[in-house]
């Protein structure tokens, strides 16, 4: 039971891991009637990704070449649901899309781009929805956005390890069998 006072027992965690941690929301939208097709995009480096995706210029440059799931780090004190709604509005320019979830995934790993960094901790809030092909958005935050069949896509075509997020939902890539 909470006493309303800080808990200074040894049971709590008050530190951020040396390799950092991320709290992120992902909006995974399938094409209506074609569950294997997921909405992915190539980010537009000229869009304000510092706000809409919490990405710095270096990450924008690196990740603009691969497919990404609409996603963002949570803004300080933002709930995962509010973050997902912000992604729908700011990244996809969509209203009225019903989302399920979130599925929560926690993983600790050494980042591929920074192998000398100690383990990094991600907590991912994955929301899902669907959209008919004729409602495919054309938002300015992306240079290209389309429904992609991951079974015909290589893992290396994805940016920011987003293939791992999709795999946690059961999606497979053309080269998944070789793993």
Brief digest:
Helix content is 17%, strand content 30%. The protein has 179 residues and is of the alpha+beta class.
Provide a descriptive summary of the structure in words.
By secondary structure, this protein is of the alpha+beta class. The chain has a single domain (25-178), classed as Nucleoside Triphosphate Pyrophosphohydrolase. It contains 4 helices and 6 strands; from the N terminus they run ββααβαβββα. The protein has helices at 49-52, 57-63, 80-91, 162-168, and strands at 21-31, 34-43, 71-73, 100-109, 120-131, 142-149. Strands 1, 2, 3, 4, 5 and 6 form a 6-stranded mixed β-sheet that branches. β1 and β2 (34-43) form a beta hairpin. 28% of the residues are buried. The model has no long low-confidence stretch (mean pLDDT 89).
Describe the secondary-structure layout:
Blueprint: E1 21-31, E2 34-43, H1 49-52, H2 57-63, E3 71-73, H3 80-91, E4 100-109, E5 120-131, E6 142-149, H4 162-168
Parallel strand pairs: 1-5
Antiparallel strand pairs: 1-2, 1-3, 2-6, 4-5
Number of strands: 6
Class computed from helices, strands and strand pairing: alpha+beta
CATH topology (level 3) name? Nucleoside Triphosphate Pyrophosphohydrolase
CATH level 1 name: Alpha Beta
Our estimate of the beta-strand percent is 25-35%
**CATH architecture descriptor text:** Alpha-Beta Complex
What is the H/E string? EEHHEHEEEH
Helix run count: 4
Largest sheet: 6 strands, mixed
Number of domains: 1
Q: What is the helix fraction of residues, given as a range? A: 10-25%
Overall 3D form: globular
């Amino acid at each position: 039971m909470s006493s309303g006072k800080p808990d200074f027992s040894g049971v709590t965690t008050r530190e951020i891991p040396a390799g950092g941690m991320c709290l992120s929301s992902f909006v995974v939208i399938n094409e209506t009637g074609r569950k294997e097709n997921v909405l992915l995009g190539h980010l537009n480096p000229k869009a304000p990704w510092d706000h809409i995706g919490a990405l710095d210029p270096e990450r924008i440059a690196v990740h603009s070449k691969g497919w990404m799931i609409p996603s963002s780090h949570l803004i300080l004190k933002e709930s995962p649901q509010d973050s997902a709604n912000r992604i729908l509005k700011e990244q996809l320019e969509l209203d009225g899309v019903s989302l399920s979830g979130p599925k929560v995934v926690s993983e600790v790993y050494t980042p591929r781009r920074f192998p000398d960094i100690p383990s990094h901790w991600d907590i991912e809030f994955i929301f899902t929805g669907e959209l008919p092909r004729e409602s495919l958005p054309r938002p300015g935050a992306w240079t290209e956005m389309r429904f992609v069949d991951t079974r015909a896509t290589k893992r290396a075509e994805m940016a920011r390890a987003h293939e791992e997020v999709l795999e946690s939902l059961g999606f497979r890539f053309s080269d998944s069998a070789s793993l």
